[in-house]
Structure formats: structure tokens, C-alpha cells
Predict the 3D structure of the following.
Amino acid sequence: MRILVTGGAGFIGSNFIRYLLGKYPDYEITNLDKLTYSGNLENLRDVEKNPNYRFIKGDIRDKKVVDSVVKERVDTILNFAAESHVDRSILEPESFIRTDIYGTYTLLEAARRYKINRYIQISTDEVYGSIEKGSFKETDPLNPSSPYAASKASADLLCLSYFTTYKLPMIITRSSNNYGHYQFPEKLIPLFITNALENKLLPLYGDGMNVRDWLYALDNCRAIDLILHKGEIGEIYNVGADNERTNIEITKSVLKILGKSEDLIRKVKDRPGHDRRYSLDSSKIRKLGWEPEHNFEKALKETVDWYRNNESWWKRLKEKAEEFYKKQYGMEN
Ligand code: NAD
Ligand code: DAU
């Protein structure tokens, strides 16, 4: 396969590229990434010399760049590129609309024009919105709460329309919250690990009782791989780990692993429109033969160790994020 991965310098995309290069030595992978604040070529240092890998700095909204890459040597597209942080979307939604919606449109057009074999859209459980009890199935209606979730839901609808109208061979994956190596230290788990390592306060939103379903990034990579090879065209696949935890549970686990005091927890103002609970019914992908391999407690500890041992990776990124925290909290974090 000759694969275009967009957003491959980000958290899940870089894990996925490393996973693919390891598993399929004959696949050619092109990584198209704009290198926004969350894109980081250091995430791929260990594979950058692999002859089957090449990096192109570019924007998925740029038709010229996208067309030239797709036309030249690509038969499969996986679109990971996105603005991905809910809190940023609440402060400044514009880039989310531009990248997550218009960028997806640009890729779909190229996929259509150059008759791509497979187009995989990496979406999210956030498109369904919050659920108090039970779990969302792929057929449930979309009810996004944040501008981020709405931009991802819009992109999903565009993808589905390209399947219906143009028979574009696309598949959508909707996964729950990922954690693991190389996650930008603005998301709950890496932010709280790195804040605790620096003896900074952990800003827990609201009552800390919101629930997320935590999926180890490598388990998500395995799910995307399966969907790429065995998924049915035109379908949507939920990818959840059935591993629900409240935010306060996650916070206490991180502090316990690091041997830090719970006095570091600071309850702060809630996120506007904060979804209470996400939960996915993943029976469809489980029927295809996938299930998560990683035990949460072990993988969380391993993730904490990774951040502990890779301070030079995240310190610089946290400095980059200061501007955002000044806007969010009106002060240094
Ligand atoms: P991330 O923010 O770590 O990475 C996003 C990457 O996209 C970065 O490398 C960035 O430079 C690149 N990018 C942004 N705008 C671009 C543009 N206009 N053109 C080209 N590249 C651009 O995000 P992530 O957490 O790795 O998420 C990857 C995908 O998975 C996203 O589509 C996200 O919606 C989805 N997702 C994430 C999670 C999660 O828990 N992190 C869960 C479900 C779905
Ligand atoms: O569910 C999948 C989604 O998971 C992905 O689509 C998004 O790209 C990804 O960012 C993530 O969204 P969340 O909003 O669920 O993740 P985040 O890490 O931002 O927050 C997780 C929970 O922790 C949420 O209930 C908000 C809370 N939180 C988060 C931060 C950053 C805090 O209490 N304090 C914080 O400082």
C-alpha cells in the first residue's frame, strides 16, 4: 500500500506511523503535516530515516499540495490531521472549522479525483455528545457539544455524503479518549502527569465526576489497522476500551503512581458545555476481531514512566502552551 497519513506528527498519527512501519515493511508512508503547535517531528525521530517513510510539511486545506501528494503516489488516505483540543475550540473555534471541516473536504476531493482505494476518517466519540446511561451505537444521532466536536461531526457527515453520492470508498472510526506516549501535555493525563512532576497544581474541572473511557493509543492503532484492512466500505466503527473512569479517579491514580500529595488537586471552574460522560458500544469492531490488549493500570503506569523519562520532550512543549493557559486562566498555569 502507498499510504498518506495526515497529521502524522501528532500524538495518535505518530504512534500509528511507527506501528505501520514496524508491521508492514513494504508499505510506503507519506506523512503530510502542517506542524501546528501540537505537531512535532521529534515524535518520529526513530523512524525518519526509514526508506519507506517521507515527511511533507503542508496544510490539508491546501489543494495544490494535497493534490500533488495524492496524485503522485498514494492509494490510501488516513486523515488524522485536526485541531484536537476541546478547550482551545471553546476559546478560538475558527481553526477547528477551517482544518477539521474544510481540510477534510480538500482530502475527500483529492480522494475522489484520483480514485483512492480507501479513505479512513479518524473521528471521535465526542460527535455523539454526552450520555448518562448506556452506550452509543454507530447508528445513534450526532449531538456534539463543543465547537471541536461539531467540527468533527461535520467532517463525518461530509465523508458519509461522499460515500453516498460519489461511492467514495471511505470508512469512519470513532474512538474514545486515547492516552500513551507523545501526547501533547495539554490533555488531561499528560497535563496532570507533567504538572505533578513539576509540583504544579492539577486544575480539575467542576466536580471531577465527568467520565471518559480510556483507550491506550497502541490499541487504537491496532483497531485502525484492522479497519483499514478488514473494515467494510461506507461503515462507521466505534472504538472504545470499556474502561470508564471519573476524572478524579484518573487524577488520584496519577498522583499515587508518582508518590505525590492529593493537595496538588485544585478544583477549578467547569469547562463550558462539559460533556458528563462518554460511552461507546464497540461490539461492531469486536465482531471484526479487535479488543484492547493493554490493561489500564499497567499502561497508565508505563505512560507515567515515559513522561518521567522524557522530560526534555515535554518541557519545551509546555512552554509553547503557556500562551494558551494565559488566555484560559488569565494567568500563568
Ligand atoms: P494532535 O493534536 O496530537 O495531532 C494533530 C496533528 O494534526 C498535529 O501533528 C498537527 O500539526 C496536525 N495538523 C493540524 N492542523 C493541520 C492542517 N491544517 N494540515 C495538516 N496537519 C495539521 O491530535 P491527536 O490527539 O493525535 O488526534 C488525532 C486525530 O484523532 C484527530 O483527528 C482527533 O480528532 C482524533 N481523535 C483523538 C482522540 C484523542 O483522545 N486524542 C480520540 C478520538 C479521536
Ligand atoms: O473522547 C475523545 C476526545 O478525547 C478526542 O476527540 C479529543 O481530541 C481529546 O482531546 C479528548 O477530549 P476530552 O475533552 O475528553 O479530553 P481532555 O483530555 O481535554 O479532558 C478529559 C477530561 O478531563 C474532561 O472531562 C475534561 C477534564 N479536564 C481536562 C483538562 C485538560 C480537567 O478536569 N482538567 C484539565 O485541565
